[in-house]
Amino acid sequence: MSHKNIKYKNPGSSSTTRFEKIHTIVFDNKKTAEFLVADEIIKLIRKNNKKNKTTVLGLATGSSPIGIYKQLIDFHKKEKITFKNVVTFNLDEYYGIEKNHNQSYHQFMDEKLFNHIDINRDNIYIPDGELNKNTIENFCKNYEKKIDSYGGIDIQILGIGSNGHIGFNEPGSNSNSVTRLVKLDYQTRNDARLDFNGIKNVPSSAITMGIKTILKSKRIILMAWGLGKSNAVKKAVEFKQNVKVPASLLQSHDNVSFILDKNSASLLTRISEPWQVGQQILDEEMINRSIHWLSAKVEKPILRLSENDYNQNNLSELLVNKSHYNHNLDVFNKLQRTITGWPGGKPKADDTYRPERKHPAKKRIIIFSPHPDDDVVSMGGTFDRLVSQGHEVHVAYQTSGNIAVSNEEVLKFVELYEDFFDRSSNFINELKKLLSDKKKIINDKRVRKLASLIREKESLAATRFIGLPDSNVHFLSLPFYETGKIKKNEPSKKDLDIMCDLIKSVKPHQIFAAGDLADPHGTHKVCIELLFDCLKKLKKLDFMKDCWVWLYRGAWHEWDTHEIDMAVPLSPEQVLRKRRAIFYHQSQNNSVMFQGDDEREFWQRVEQRNREIAIRYNELGTADYQAMETFRRYYF
Ligand code: F6R
């Protein structure tokens, strides 16, 4: 792609950005953004090279700057830009790991940048993670002095942690902090768990430049990509400066830019509530969204919103061509019509305003479940209805989910086998020895196979309880997942073919799938992208023209009410049935391996979530249901 003539654009009129305390630019295309940042760096290097002057760069690691480093390498190779006069200071390094450890930031920088440019090795400075504790303080002082001796950093590149950290300045770091040894936050360590094959292997401390060190840079560019960063970005850009969100301390710098993609910027007021900053309300989707927002803001059901409510909350524009009363009615009706007890369509009923078609009365349906319990956790009630309403339902478990079975659980079955069959053998003893370490993830084919089988049997118990024949349960065991480690492979054609083959053999009228896109590394994201690729590939086939796709959300997130196209209410009894179906996944109860910082069991989280969305519907003015499962239609 040629980006030659692209420039940073002004973010818009000042009223659009009036909540933003930092210069922020949002890009549709991440590659364009990366090019512009690289271009700014190269321009400075070029200018300084001409005068034989040193350029001092502050560099970050992590996923955010990788694209920029690629572009810098491109500039070096294609346009012969030399880095001989460049000096670099890295923000941080894990403490207690060796420079040649595959996750050290020394390795990262060599791989992603230094090995591919002509930088002088003596000009590279990275905090040393191998130091003796008693030499750290001195090292840090010298690091600061070294930066000063070059006249400070010209351009500092930053990423942002999901907790708002910059460098490893975790929440609580103040604006006077300098280079030092710090403890890492739980959230930071959890975010790094994939790289270290489990949180317990992630170092607990690091050496990092301080906030003051960063603020001394002449120019600061922070990049953030993806939904996972949206919360931190919102707080850093729009909230008051606060040590709880270290990136917000950048507000005091007078030459800083945040470079964002649409996802990381999605919570900024100009994007999430554009009417608040004088943006025009352009389409039905925005009207719907703004009225749901208004109802929550003034705490009134939709049908009770008054003309005054619209006028006092920046929505008077909506009243130019249509009365508030008609808006209320339209948006309420739309919401009301999302509710159905017939997720596969109601036979013989008028389906003009129903979320699903009535024909064919008996549909073929595939529920794609990334792990072997997402089906019941996320849509157990709907699943139950689809089966009891006579549809031909298939469940496809995309991955084996074997990493989430604890060693204690596998050991239980090994011992059961040994005792019941009275068979001690070398094989059994070897397995028992391997499994004696409760926490380690064991990359042994036999252990992983046993863990997969445990999850398969649990899934079958749950699907039998719901009334599905075993022949309709498909264990796809997608190969991308089978690494024996937490970190997975990139999905390949093999994965895609397995998914597409199932769709071609069932020829479904409905597909349900987990639509979680927030986690950039997660299995759910890979699974949904594989489905989207299949849909693209199979789109032209005749049966696909009659196939509707519905996305559900996993255990953690819920759709916003304005995004929902179908809401399936659950009675108190159905909630209990769903709970029972979840309980069959015994290996996932009792504090599973990947609980995160939420101590609740899956069934508790999801029951609460299903209850909360029913309460939200009720607050918007619909009837008072016990619980609801919600879906968004995906058009392809
Ligand atoms: C890296 C660093 C961190 C990262 C931040 C975002 O040197 O200091 O502050 O910039 O954790 O990480 P990614 O880019 O991987 O999301």
Question: Which keywords apply here?
Answer:
seven-stranded parallel beta sheet; 19 helices; single chain; alpha/beta; binds fructose -6-phosphate; 13% strand; 636 residues
State the gist of this model:
The protein contains 19 helices and 17 strands. It has 636 residues and is α/β, with parallel strands linked by helices.
Structure characterization notes:
There is one protein chain. The chain has about 625 residues and is an alpha/beta fold. It contains 19 helices and 17 strands. It has helices at about 30-50, 65-80, 105-110, 135-150, 185-190, 210-215, 230-240, 270, 285-300, 305-310, 325-335, 375-390, 405-420, 425-435, 445-465, 495-505, 525-540, 570-585, 600-620; strands spanning about 25, 55-60, 85-90, 90-95, 125, 155-160, 180-185, 205-210, 220-225, 255-260, 365-370, 390-395, 475, 510-515, 550, 565-570, 625-635. The protein has a 7-stranded parallel β-sheet, sandwiched between helices. A 7-stranded mixed β-sheet has the order 13-12-11-14-15-17-16, with helices on both faces. Strands 4-8-7 form a 3-stranded antiparallel β-sheet. Strand 11 (about 365-370), helix 12 (about 375-390) and strand 12 form a beta-alpha-beta unit. It binds fructose -6-phosphate. The site of fructose -6-phosphate has 14 residues, from loops.
